[in-house]
Amino acid sequence: MGGMNSWTELVHHHAPGVTLFKSDALRVLRTVGTASVDCVVTSPPYWGMRDYGADGQYGMEPTVEDYAASLRRVFAEVKRVLTPTGTCWVNLGDSYGGSWGNYVAVGSSSRTAQDRVRERRHGAHRRPQSWMPRKSLIGLPRRVAFAMRQDGWLLRSAVVWHKPNAAPESVRDRFSTSYETVFLFAASDRHYLSSTSEADLWSVPVRAYRGAHNAVGPVDIAAKAIELGCPRRGVVLDPFSGTATTGVAARALGHRYIGIDLNPAFHDLAIARFAEQEGETPWQPSR
C-alpha cells in the first residue's frame, strides 16, 4: 500500500486477513500500492435504485452518463492496483427509461416532495433522461463495460447469473427479470484463471439476509469468481464492500480481504459476519 499516513486514517477495522476502509472508493484506491491486489470482486450500487444515506455515494448520479463516468474513474484505479495476472469481476443490474417513482423536481416546494427528500427514499434524486424512451431498457451494464474497455480493460466474459428463485416484479407489460450480468475483466492477456471448464451461466438462488442492508448478493457468486480468478493465498478487494459478502467468501477460501465502503454501519455489519465466520467449519460454495 501507499504511505502509512495516507491510508491508516481511513481504516475502519483491521484484523488478521481483513482491512475495512471507510471512505470514498476512489480516495482509498489512490493510496493502495500498484500491482498489489490479485482479484477484485464487486457489485457497485446500481444507478437510481437505492439511497443509502451516505454523502458522496455512487448510484445517485443525475444521469446515466455521469454514473458510467463515476464507475470508470474507480475502475481505472482498480486496474492500476491489480497485478499483471489479476482479474476483476463486476456484477451490475440494468434499469429502464423514465423517472423513478419518488423523483423530486428541483425547486419543488410541495409537502409530498419535502417529505420524500426528508425521508431520503430511494430514487429521490434521479431525474428523467430526456434522450431515453420511457420504459425502454437502458443497457447500463454494457454501457459501463464498454466504457471500461476504452480504458484498456480486456472484457473477457459476460456471465449470466440466473436467479431460480427471483421474485416476480409488479409489471404487466414485460417479463420479470430473473438474471443479472457478471463481467470478467482482465488487465492483461496473461490473467489468471483456474479453470476454463466453468460455463458462463451460473444458476445461483438469492439468499435472504437478516441485516440492515437490502442489496446483499449471495456469497456463492463471489466465491465462484474468487475460486476462478484468484491464485492461492491472494489479496481480494471490493471497492463497494457493503456488508462484505466478497470478504466472507474470500476469507472462507483462505485469501486476504480489503473492503471499501462509505457507510460505517455496513462495515459494522460486515465485522459481525466475520466474527460469526471465525471458528466455524469452512463454508463451501454451492455448485
TrEMBL record:
Residues 37-270 form the DNA methylase N-4/N-6 domain. It catalyses: a 2'-deoxycytidine in DNA + S-adenosyl-L-methionine = an N(4)-methyl-2'-deoxycytidine in DNA + S-adenosyl-L-homocysteine + H(+). One of its GO terms (biological process) is methylation. Pfam families: N6_N4_Mtase (PF01555). Coiled coil: none annotated. It comes from the Bacteria. Keywords: DNA-binding, Methyltransferase, Restriction system, S-adenosyl-L-methionine, Transferase. Gene3D superfamilies: Vaccinia Virus protein VP39 (3.40.50.150). One of its GO terms (molecular function) is methyltransferase activity. InterPro entries: DNA_methylase_N4/N6, MeTrfase_CN4_CS, RM_Methyltransferase, SAM-dependent_MTases_sf. The keyword Cell membrane does not apply. Its EC number is 2.1.1.-. Belongs to the N(4)/N(6)-methyltransferase family. N(4) subfamily. This is Methyltransferase. It comes from Lentzea flava.
